[in-house]
Amino acid sequence: MQLIQIMGILISGTLVLYAFMRYRAKRLTLREFILWALLWTGVTIVALLPNIIGRIAGLLGIGRGIDVIIYLSILMLFYLNFRLYMKIDDTQKDITRLVRALALRPKKK
Amino acid sequence: MKTYIVIPAYNEEGKIGEVIQGLIKQRYANIVVVDDGSTDRTAMASSKATVLRHAINRGQGAALKTGIDYALSVGADIIVTFDADGQHHPEDIPALIAPIMKRKADIALGSRFIRKGSNPPLLRKLALKGGALVFRLLYGARLSDSHNGLRALSRRAASVIRITCDDMTHASEIIEEIKLNKLKYVEVPVKITYTEYSLKKGQSTLNGARILFKMVFKKLFR
């Protein structure tokens, strides 16, 4: 086993555990926990069996395994970025609503 | 009919007092200044008007909506939006509200291009005309001017128009809402006086490009 594999397993394993603890402490919802757990379990599997990526690449018709990872990562980053953008937009609107409600409060004499 | 003048203001301590005086001189009694989180003494300088204060700066669209909501809540029949930087003239208001009083229109938009007298710098003129072209392409509204802060709204128009864009994009949003709600609109000639002050405080032409991007984005995704 290569050093990179061991590191991958240790890091992703720790992160699954961390996510679980956060879920236990009710800082994550069940859905969020499952999402994180799936992501890091995926990383663990790839670390254990690196050839699996090559197979997926072959199935998809992409040249190399590493390319699959890069494409997926870029897609995911775009998606997360979009979600973040929407979330900030919502937050901005909430702040405006709050500021407006305060401005329209009847003045105390 | 009760007419309310709504003035969004952000750091306008130097000019706002004069603007309010000018309106009072023309016998407009219901003046609402929305101090959009100014860091200067805009609120103090506006003491002759009703002042609503945003605790944090939220942008002109947000301030306008606050003022409009307030005016509606106190029973305004007509709401005039007016800029705080002195580029508008109170003398233009009667012509602006006339079509609404006569129920010929739900909203009257000031246009600086119908009659001569305004002196926009060339680049500004091009940007505004470009904006008008975009309105025509996106919303099918034929206008001679775009992004003019001087408008008059009937109570009905003010109630149905939803301003959700906090920043300057609201000006485009209003046109979009007019079309969506099938409101009747007219353009009324008004004079805009460009001073060094108003140009410095106003929108950069470059910002127009950003607004255009936002408008197209909104049209695509909502």
Describe this structure in words.
The complex is a heterodimer of chains A (109) and B (222). Chain A is mainly α and 109 residues long. Chain A has 4 helices and no strands. The longest helix of chain A has 39 residues. Chain B is α/β, with parallel strands linked by helices. In chain B, 43% of the residues lie in helices and 16% in strands. Chain B has a 7-stranded mixed β-sheet, sandwiched between helices. In chain B, helix 2 links the parallel strand 2 and strand 3. The termini of chain B are far apart. The chains are: A mainly alpha (109), B alpha/beta (222). At the A-B interface, helix 4 of A face strand 3 and helix 3 of B.
> In what range is the share of β-strand residues of chain A?
under 5%
> How would you describe the shape of chain A?
elongated
Shape of chain B: globular
What portion of residues of chain B belong to β-strands? Answer: 15-25%
In angstroms, what separates the terminal alpha carbons of chain B?
36 Å
Largest sheet of chain B: 7 strands, mixed
Pick out the low-confidence regions of chain B: none
Quaternary state reads: heterodimer
- The Cα radius of gyration of chain B reads 16 Å
Q: How many β strands of chain A by DSSP?
A: 0
Helix residue percentage of chain B: 40-55%
Task: Give the averaged pLDDT of chain B, no decimals.
Answer: 89
Specify the structural class of chain A: mainly alpha
Helical run tally of chain A:
4
What is the CA-atom radius of gyration of chain A, in angstroms? 21 Å
Class by helix and strand content of chain B?
alpha/beta
Strand order of the largest sheet of chain B: 3-2-1-4-6-5-7
